[in-house]
Write a structure and sequence with these properties.
28% of the residues lie in helices and 23% in strands. With 183 residues, it is of the alpha+beta class. It has 2 domains: 2-108, no CATH class; 116-182, SH3 Domains (SH3 type barrels, Roll), CATH 2.30.30.40. Helix 4 packs across helix 6.
């Protein structure tokens, strides 16, 4: 398997393209011990995926998302999903094309944080009140929610810790947590 991964990746990390300290990384839960379910990563990429991710380190995935190898795309999607509180990561994740089978594989290995945090890193809970920190154009609403607007009694979007819901001007809208602070 290692020789196959070396040949497939031109002996470099399939995420950041570093050519040292390379090891196979299993993309579970479908891992079968072959290159078809593994990615060749450098030690730094492996450590960050399994530990604390530096928010801007994985900008290198802008190349990896276009890989023709399924496990690379699946793992890139998972990493970007973990970084969904970052606008650049959401943009890259939106560019990845995964068919139904690959999307199911990607989702099956996701470990989500259930922590919804405001712009200051304060944990949000259902029922909290928040303030908008930026003017937000409400798509489909025909208005702009102004900075300083109070959103009372928010609800949390269960499958995405970067989103909350609340009423603004009588309409229920989804708001990115990076644009609110707890009141």
């Amino acid at each position: 398997m290692f020789a196959t991964l070396i040949a497939r990746s031109d002996a470099s990390c399939e995420f950041c393209e570093v050519a040292s300290n390379l090891l196979p990384y299993s993309v579970g839960p479908l891992h079968d011990g072959t290159a078809m379910t593994s990615v060749l990563l450098c030690d730094k990429c492996s450590e960050m995926i399994d530990g604390k991710i530096e928010k801007n380190y994985f900008r290198c995935l802008s190349s990896a998302i276009w890989s023709e190898h399924d496990p690379v795309k699946v793992l890139a999607w998972r990493v970007l999903d973990m970084l969904s509180d970052q606008a650049w990561a959401r943009d890259l994740k939106d560019q990845i094309y995964l068919d139904e089978v690959l999307m199911a594989w990607a989702i099956s290995g996701v470990i989500r944080s259930s922590q919804h945090k405001d712009v200051n890193g304060v944990t949000l809970e259902a029922g909290n009140n928040v303030l908008l920190i930026k003017d937000l154009v409400v798509k489909g609403g025909g208005f702009t929610a102004k900075r300083g607007t109070a959103v009372r009694g928010i609800s949390l979007v269960e499958d995405n810790p970067a989103h909350i819901e609340g009423k603004v001007e009588g309409q229920r809208i989804t708001i990115l947590t990076e644009f609110v602070k707890k009141k």
